[in-house]
Queue: 4 jobs
Job 1
Amino acid sequence: MPYLAHFGLEERPFTLTPNPDMYMHTPEHTAIAQAVVYALKQQAGVIKVVGDIGTGKTLLCRILLHALNDVQPLAYINAPERDEDRLVDTVCKEFGVYPGSRESAFEALRYFLLEKHAQGFTPILLVDEAQALGVEGLESLRLLSNLETEHAKLLQIVLFGQPELDLLLRRYELRQLNQRVVHGFYTSKLTMDEAEHYVRHRIACCKRKSNRRELFTKGALTLIAKSSRGIPRLLNVLSEKALLVAYTDTAPRVERSHVEDAVADSKDILFAPVAIMDKTTTRRVLWAALAAEAALAAVIAVLLLPVGDVGGSIFSRVVEQLAPSVTSVQTQTASLPGPETDQSRDR
């Protein structure tokens, strides 16, 4: 992207895809990772890591995936199936187990786990977005957690999920699985200092080696940290938009005014609208939420909807900024025979 050269960057520092190469170690995440590894060594059975949307659960899951890959056989599921048969099929596939024509996937998985146990291993299943399993899928996981010998578990399970996962586990029909969750850990938002350091860290990971300048002023960092409420995903969105605003202004660094434009362009993400209801309706909704915690979880989910890529009016400003160069490229290629080349299209 053109703005990368403008700021002396080799790649985009604020992509929304979890990137272990840009992982910033915080005391909380480090403590959680160490605690999960310790619990796995103790063969605790089922472990859960819960946190709000955008607080780094998936990135933490992938960090653990890399850290544990050489220790025990691992299976990682990031789009879990609710159906029991499909879920077991997916787990088998992740472990590299392919059932024969005369055995079920569950039997094949059991034989695999027994074989690994005989070799001194206890395979680990990491499940991201575990709340998507629902009651049926979580009950299927309980059946997998039952695979054990007289002295040891054959499979250890780590669940990563949003707060809805806790609500599901409290349901009466899932009380057996809930009792098997030996350890629970919770990810929270970054502090103001951590949020500012997060932006600097991501920039440092993507800077050219010869680039020594600061790309965000102190005022810009403070406003980003405050407006994002310390949520890493929102930090990424605001920082990316602020860089684009500064680029369209041909500014050498991001100032507070650029962040103000980014915040104004992100109101739908940062400040979700609240429905206006009369007192009777409000009282009825509140009682319903108290009676069924899933209703409250749904409200939380709406307020914390995941964000997409950079867009809105800021993106339009970038397009306008690039318009002259695009016209120039089109003029140069108009006289060339044949279809447009990949190189011209990339430019």
Note: The first strand starts at residue 46 and ends at 51.
Job 2
Amino acid sequence: MNFEVSETQKMIAESIRDFAKLHISPFMMDWDENQTFPIKLFHKLGEMGFMGVLVPEAYGGSGLGYHEYITVIEEISKVDSSIGLSVAAHNSLCTNHILQFGNEDQKKKWLPKLASGEWIGAWGLTEHNTGSDAGNMSTTAVEDDDSYIINGAKNFITHGKSGNIAVVIVRTGKKGDSHGMTAFAIERGTPGFTSGKKENKLGMRASETAELVFDNCRIHKDQIIGKVGDGFIQSLKILDGGRISIGALSLGISKGAYEAALKYSKEREQFGKPISHFQGISFKLADMATEIEASELLLHKAAYLKNKGERIDTIGAMAKMYASEASVKIANEAVQIHGGYGYTKDYPVEKFYRDAKLCTIGEGTTEIQKLVISRNILK
């Protein structure tokens, strides 16, 4: 592996920092308080090439790899992880599912709109009673001539209300059959396709999370992604890449919280000297810095293997698990270093603290990552 940061990554990081100062930092707390999903911001991010990072240039994307993708998500998340989450979900779930498994007509039809940020993408696997047990989903698609009729609902869907298109995995066979589910791409405005409850969340509040509802929603067979029965298998492969996304999101939170805590520790004085001079604080910072380094190395190893087309189920789960758990610990310590001020909204660490927890849950809980890792190492 090459541990050097590429010039492209450096340029991406610099452009995002400049963009964030103008378009994210001044508004992020208002978005957080009011749970505002700033759609226009994502159109602007699309113009910069960050809504189609992995999409080839032939389909209007940036044609970059996973090292660059980590940089995009990480740098955005260092400022506002809600925005980082939405960029990650758009890129790695909906857009990537069409890219990886769609046919040529589907790619030409939908990818340019998604890559440009003109359209926002959603992806639906989870249901109310089937979180980690996706194989027992209740949403069904029944064949009817040249169409399928979909009934049911998906829960905890990023961009569930504002998404212009959703890739959803629904049951076309028996419950529990890993080949009994199929992926469909469904555009907003399709009769019978609506949104339900928008979640009122602890953190990531500017990233919209809502239900997708299907009531006799008729979908033509040309909207099937891949083959009938392959939806669940496809989703597992998509989630492998998605774990890099959540790991990068976690890394951004960790770095943002750490940098805020480091800065504060040098400025805040007690007993006549900066609190960074006290071992109790300096050791916390040392642990934080080490966990960030370890998270970054795991993530870029996963990216290296993903770029080569190799399996990343084990290393991806390791990277996601470690980075997400580290982000919770680091955000917690950042609040502790700030003391009482860390509990107020005058400093950024309270938001990192609230946002971090989702990373240990979304796209496979820590426990599911341990299940994936243990199964693979015990083969």
Note: The chain is about 50% helix and 15% strand.
Job 3
Amino acid sequence: MERVGIGRRLPAALLDGIAIGILILISLGIYVAVGGTRLMLAASDAIGIPVNLNNVQSDEVWTEFARESELMVEQLSEQFEDDFTQEQAEFMGEILEQTFTGYVTPDQLSLEFIMGLDSNFVDDAIDTGFDAVIAADREDIPADKVNELREEVKVLAERFAVAQIVPRAIQFAVWLLIIPVIVVLGYGFVEAISGRTIGKLMLGLGIERADDDGPATPNRLLRYAVKYSPLLFAVLALATRLPVFVAISAISWIVVLVGALMMVAPGKKALHDHVAGTAVLKL
């Protein structure tokens, strides 16, 4: 069987890119239909009128959303004004704003965190903010009044469906980024197991052992690990929140991209093929 160089592999890569793009669009379409429906149901609860794909951009929805938001802010302000002076309320507001703004930071994001998002997320954020107010230890702001306000804020968050819509909105946005990664890794894994992709199959190409001696699947799995190491380490970084995996992922991108240029050499093998002992062959 003949080894295939970059000239024949590029058309196959182009076909694979088209196939991956179509798979990503289909996957995102399904997710938007399902996840978007859940998000719109939560939004309907939050603003009190039905929200769907047909009216989500309408003036009626956003006007009602603005009205409900203003109403919630007014009720929050009333809760502050009942027990605290304007200066105390402003002091507490600054602390709460800083806490809420920094509650979701990049070093917190992990698969466990994203999958576990629920209504408790908002309660935890509220607790963190009011704990910071108490920790400021101002004698003129009694802890018991702060705790009473804490519970009232939780009631408002539940009444206006903030506890439902915020976690789902975060999950929805994050999974829009994760799904394409899953599709790409899954597509590559099929190639590792079968030695074929849609592009290679259409052009009569396949991945086999370079020495043509023994089963190729273990070698193809090693090839997969090297070729997709940037994404695999990125997933590990998300799962473990360890900065070292972020750094390794970034370095892997450079190594894999530079290693792909080795296909123009006489051996017609990229770096991942050299490491795994594989070659792309005309079958």
Note: The chain has two domains: 2-27+174-282, 47-166.
Job 4
Amino acid sequence: MLQEILIPVAILGGLGLFFGLCLSYASKKFGVKVDERIGKVRDVLPGANCGACGFTGCDGYAEAVVSGNADINKCTVGGRDVMVSIGEILGKDTSTSSVECKVGRVMCGADNGKTRTKYDYSGIKDCTAATALYGGPTACMYGCIGMGDCAKACPFGAIVVERGVARVLAAKCKGCGKCVEVCPRNIIKIVPKEKQYTVRCNNPQRGNFVMKVCKVGCIGCRKCSKVCEAGAITNDGFVARINPELCTNCGKCMEVCPNHVINKYPVCSDEGPAAVNE
């Protein structure tokens, strides 16, 4: 009786051992080797998973930078310290490299009283929900709704809503772009921090239509583009756009703007453009 029990047990045990050895061999033979540097790079990254580097998160960026598919200076959250640490892990010289700091800018300067409203909104405080109701409560279909979807999405607390318009705190902003993704009117742009001049309007309509709904909108007069020696200003429809790649921060565009739509932003400061222009 005992023998009848032991024989099946021994067979099962032998089969288990055999298959275990086979799996162990297969894992060593066909297993994908993971570069240990990926873990080291991941450890020096800040863990914000914000996407500012252009990848889905810190894990994706670590794999990309080790495999050579990404530069070592793409983590704007960690800045130069993280870049130097990655360089040390990968054996790369960072003496001539730098991290490009970017910041979000809200292309709307129509705070309370400067834009006409179509109706009093009393629904949930959400820009997307408000936009779904007859295009939103503001008469300008291209301006900030001011209910803070961008502020809620910002992982760094870099956006505040003041007098009905969102404002980015440059010193806290990491240029991750999460605010851009959630804005239903697409009025937030990511630009290099050192580029100080921005057109705070997103309405591409003719000036006479713009002025019917907003007191501080771009009227498409093209004075700014004519005075810009760098050729950095063009018109998208009838609204001026400044190309940050070409802008030299000369400020001539702001000087000639009749509606004071072009504002100067201090570099890496939480001061708003209004404080600079006053």
Note: DSSP finds eleven helices and eight strands in the chain.
